[in-house]
Design brief:
Length: 365
């Protein structure tokens, strides 16, 4: 199926009305304690209004000490339920599915934010992180599951586990970072155990039609393409996931590992026997042509990030013009504000080289 606007069903939960998912995007807009802010609410609900088949939150941390950046949304306390419930209801009212991305930064949690040394599968000198005890790994597993239960209670259609980009679940997968010698270290099966245990726990404790996805990085961050490919195949064959979201940086790129070059990184995952598990891809999908290319080359759906920052109604614009391409960069801050980005998000985007145009100083007199 290569029609971007054909519905897509999952094994569990309602179908997406199209093949376009809002990528989970760091935006620094929540309150200090992780509660939903009006800016965060507006940013996300405008994307639901704009036609995304599924609207996903930014990475939401499942433990207080798992916070990865300022202004991060939290899902580790019932104090967060009020804002999450308000958000889920509005996304549904706008005709989009909803998902919370569940996250823990692990060794990448800044000590100045969490007030203590960050944690990691093993001691890590570079990040001054301490290795988790066995009891703490079990608690971390439980807190991911509890966050999924909390998201369900708030009214979300599902959750995505953030197993990519060098955060804690990705740290467990990395044979470079994870040097444990217990049931969470050594073999790929052991290093993936925390992920498979979380998946099993969510399936056991959330309703049968609760949608569950997993984001993976196939390279960088100490992971190996062959292993991530093997894990993706195992999880697809297992049938407990509704979708896997591959974060590729660029859907057309070749792998960085020399032994795998000569074809696209994406092709190593589109060729897998996915059964009923859906495969989504993210990475420089800016135009309608980019999105269709990904579907034509085997993906089930696409995740749009920067295009969605630039245009809250990116799906509607592509529906009206199949060759739609977003505004060229840099763009004025005023444009981003009009597209629903709050001050903290605009400031964050100004740190991306070439994204936000320098504002002209006001002429006085």
């Amino acid at each position: 199926m290569t029609d971007l606007f054909a519905p897509m069903d999952f094994v569990r939960g309602p179908a997406m009305k199209n093949r376009i998912m809002l990528a989970p995007l760091t935006n620094l807009q929540s309150h200090v304690d992780g509660r939903m802010s009006d800016d965060e609410f507006r940013w996300l609900t405008m994307r639901a209004t704009g036609g995304f088949g599924l609207t996903m939150t930014c990475a939401a941390h499942v433990q207080r000490i798992g916070q990865g950046f300022p202004g991060q949304m939290g899902v580790w306390s019932d104090d967060h339920l009020e804002g999450l419930t308000r958000l889920a209801a509005k996304i549904r009212a706008e005709g989009s599915l909803s998902a919370v991305q569940l996250h823990h930064a692990g060794m990448r949690s800044p000590a100045e934010i969490i007030g203590e040394a960050p944690v990691c599968p093993s001691d890590n000198d570079e990040f001054k992180a301490r290795g988790l005890t066995a009891a703490e790994v079990e608690q971390l597993t439980e807190d991911f599951i509890a966050a999924a239960v909390r998201s369900e209670k708030a009214g979300f259609d599902g959750v995505e586990l953030h197993g990519a980009h060098g955060y804690v679940l990705c740290q467990f997968l990395s044979p470079e970072i994870n040097r444990r010698d217990d049931q969470w270290g050594g073999s790929l099966q052991n290093r993936a155990r925390i992920i498979t245990d979380i998946i099993a726990g969510v399936r056991a404790r959330c309703r049968p039609d609760f949608t569950l996805g997993l984001r993976l990085s196939p390279e960088r961050f100490g992971v190996q393409l062959a292993e991530i490919r093997e894990l993706a195949q195992t999880l697809m064959s297992g049938g407990a996931l509704d979708y896997i979201d591959m974060s590729l940086w660029d859907v057309r790129k070749e792998p960085v590992e020399p032994d795998f070059q000569g074809r696209s990184l994406m092709s190593y995952f589109t060729e897998l026997d996915r059964g009923q598990t859906r495969l989504g891809v993210a990475g420089k999908i800016m135009s309608g042509d980019d999105a269709r290319w990904a579907l034509e080359h085997g993906a089930d759906f696409v995740l749009v990030g920067r295009g969605a920052i630039l245009h809250h109604d990116w799906p509607k614009k592509v529906a009206a013009d199949p060759h739609f391409t977003p505004l060229s960069l840099p763009v004025p801050a005023a444009h981003l504000r009009a597209e629903g980005l709050g001050p903290a998000f605009v400031q964050y985007m100004s740190t991306w080289k070439g994204f936000v145009a320098a504002e002209e100083p006001e002429v006085v007199g």
